[in-house]
Design a protein that fits this description.
Layout: E1 4-5, E2 23-24, E3 45-50, E4 56-59, H1 60-64, E5 69-76, E6 81-92, H2 93-100, E7 108-113, E8 118-122, H3 123-126, E9 132-137, E10 140-141, E11 151-153, E12 166-172
Parallel strand pairs: 1-5, 2-6, 3-12
Antiparallel strand pairs: 3-4, 5-6, 6-9, 7-8, 7-12, 9-10, 9-11
The structure holds the ligand Nc1nc2c(c(=O)[nH]1)N[C@H]1C(S)=C(S)[C@@H](COP(=O)(O)O)O[C@H]1N2 and molybdenum atom (MO).
The ligand Nc1nc2c(c(=O)[nH]1)N[C@H]1C(S)=C(S)[C@@H](COP(=O)(O)O)O[C@H]1N2 binds at residues 29-33, 77, 113, 115, 117, 146-147, 159-160, 162-165.
């Protein structure tokens, strides 16, 4: 499948593709707060809850039938490494949000993963075509260490905003903090502004 190149999105935020204080790596390190959780394609469920017109639940088979895209993106870890030209395939955030119908009162989103991880973002930072619920990396099933079967990628943010093993999102009418955000990391996490901590 042809990938749409979105690696130029840095031009909205800064002069340089490599954000300040980052160094480029070709490796793809694994960073997880705890181990890689098990999942069962028969019982896995993805839920969309909170401030929406209709709460949604998808089985793995149903989720895989949603319209998908492939994009070439950069990946910026808050610990200082960036990996260019990652190809991710999945469903865009706006595509999913449209199916649930976002309540006009919603301002924020909480993502959660099978390992108990959570991360939050302002709604406007989620409503971008580059925010993907991705199941493939470089044309192969997303490796389990990197969040398989499904993870979020946020190329305009530090990568802790991308929940691995994501199995639910909640639309919120007031901001709340996720796992690292409660421990002092930035809620907005713009790499070109070096928003690492809050
Ligand atoms: N579910 C879950 N998602 C997570 C994490 C985690 O511990 N659990 N770690 C975050 C952090 S801090 C980073 S830097 C990226 C790392 O993704 P990678 O392991 O694919 O490099 O995942 C993010 N998403
Ligand atoms: Mo991280």
């Amino acid at each position: 499948m042809d990938a749409t190149d979105v690696t130029d999105l840095y031009q909205e935020f800064g002069e340089e593709r490599l954000p300040p204080g980052q160094r480029e790596t070709t490796a793809f390190p694994v960073l997880s707060k705890s181990g890689t959780p098990d999942w069962d394609p028969e019982t896995w469920e993805f839920t969309v809850t909170g401030a929406v017109e209709e709460e949604l639940t998808f089985s793995w088979a149903e989720f895989r039938e949603l319209p998908s895209v492939t994009q070439r993106q950069d990946f910026h870890c808050v610990t200082g490494w960036s990996k260019f030209d990652c190809s991710f395939t999945g469903v865009s955030f706006p595509e999913l949000a449209e199916r649930a119908g976002v309540d006009p009162e919603a301002v924020h989103v909480m993502f959660s993963g099978l390992d108990g991880y959570t991360t939050d973002l302002p709604l406007e930072d989620c409503m971008r075509e580059e925010v993907l619920f991705a199941w493939a990396f470089d044309g192969e099933a997303l490796p389990e260490d990197h969040g398989g079967p499904l993870r979020v990628v946020t190329p305009h943010k530090y990568a802790y905003k991308g929940a691995k093993w994501v199995d639910g999102i909640e639309f919120l009418t007031e901001p709340q903090r996720g796992y690292w955000e409660r421990r002092g990391y930035s809620q907005t996490a713009n790499p070109w502004e070096e928003q690492r901590y809050s």
